Amino acid sequence: MTTPPLADVPIRSAADLTARWERLLAPPVFGARSLWLCWLDDGLMVPLVVPVDEIPARPGRTMLANLPSLCQTVVEEHVFGGAHVAMALCRPGLPTVTRDDEAWAAGLREAFADEDCTWSLHLAAGGSVVPMVEEHWSR
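Predicted structure:
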């Protein structure tokens, strides 16, 4: 029996997406902060993963303003069905959600409020991946 490439295995739930991040970020231990982005096209992962390195503890306005347009550009070029932007906030430390992490979630909620795609956010830290924002899995 052969195992299909990850891009061929559909992601149908928030739990599936958490498992995918665990595989992509293995081991989820980081020495610096980064925000990883990937896109789903009707549940299939687009073969593009973008890490944004050296992000601040709390999101800046410029980054939050530019992130949706970056995501929209990728969607226009690579997504032909229902678009979902999956993000993983990666940082050193324990996998406990902090106030800084909550600031990222709040900033992303505001940044993506008027976007047509769905989105989600996971925290990767201390050897674990935990969902932070799942409610935007579908609209």
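Summary: The chain has three helices and five strands.
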